[in-house]
Amino acid sequence: MKGSLLTMMRALFSAISGMRNHMSYMDVVGNNIANVNTTAYKASRVTFQDILGQTIRGASSPQNGRGGTNPAQIGLGMNLGAIDNIMGQGSLQSTGKLTDFAVQGDGFFVVSDGQQNYYTRDGAFDIGVDGGLVNPSTGLRVMGWAADSSGNVDTQTPLTALEIPFGTRISAEPSTKMTMAGNLDSGTPTYSAGPPPTGVVNTTVTAYDSLGNSHSVNLEFRKNATADTWDVTGTYVDQSGTTQTITPTQSAQLKFTTTGQIDSTVANNGQIKFDLANLFNGAVTPQTVNVDVTKFTQFASNGNSQVSLQNQDGFPAGALVSFAVGSSGEISGIYSNGSNRVIGQLALANFVNPGGLLRAGQNNWIPTSNSGDAIVGTPNSGGRGTVSTGTLETSNVDLAQQFTNVIIAQRGFQASSRVITASDQLLQDLVNIIH
After folding, report:
1. Model's pTM, two decimal places?
2. For residues 298 and 292, what is the distance between their CA atoms, to the nearest angstrom?
3. What stretches in the chain show pLDDT beneath 70?
């Protein structure tokens, strides 16, 4: 009797453990389903393990011609083994919003409340009233590194809250370098002042002085009577409205080889240098401008010479009006004068064991002793993923799998409850035998 009663009690307790832990299973699945549309949510997975069984008979080894016997154990139920975080990549959804970021690959954005850093894959950020880049639902500030006035970023310094200071102005920068390319037609006749002038190729470039004032400079390339030689001159309008002729202080002539290339054997050939004097009051004068035309060629082109400005430095003063974030997390400010300048660098963190992170609510994570400390660096380095702008990462919950898990949890609970019902009936029969 006593052995039968204890046997029934084992079945009851095993079934109770099954019901209790399948309820926990259902809790986890229900939370996954509830967060199917949560930005960058990472699904949880439940695993079970059995409880140490009660040994009824031990094992024996073969002896005296008889084979060995296996141990006999009765299990005492099951335990909740682990609730794992599935850190796989969620799908990316385009939002078109400039301040929405998503990580493609491993890594977490670093956000802070000023006291503690948190880590998140939720990149639904915005610009705060103070110009800071923040998560508008939590107020946590996005961390990274600020650039200095020259656009340089030192990633070895401590993290700081990133700012997008719209309206911030940058000073004018004078033009000192220009690069031009093109072809001067070899069939152009020798220069003649005319009228009308012949044998000349004109192009206009804009140079900025130290105050940001623009000056239109008309450069002229005149075919010299000497073969494969062109004279360089130009004009500009000074502060009094007078047209001034400029004579290059270096490379007033361009010399080409018989194969149509700039003759590199001639000193300073292709490096034009000229000065602008009599600029507007207050501007640094004279202003020296270097023009690189080493990419010029001299081929026949049926009288159609073409020259163009490829790039130059210098710009007027401007204000920050927009920004862009590259895949490596560099934040470039876009100014009203058309110039771009790096104003910050977004930071990403990764972990040796990201599955060991602890959920802190609001789509945030914090490190634990089993996740390891955050390894902070720039995107697209050290195993960290790239940053995509105008997109958000969606939940990685597989809804079909979760509904299947609902059925599994429900059937597991029902089966355990049936064991309790059957055990109760057996106990009732046992009581009836006693009476």
Report:
1. 0.73
2. 16
3. 1-8, 434-435
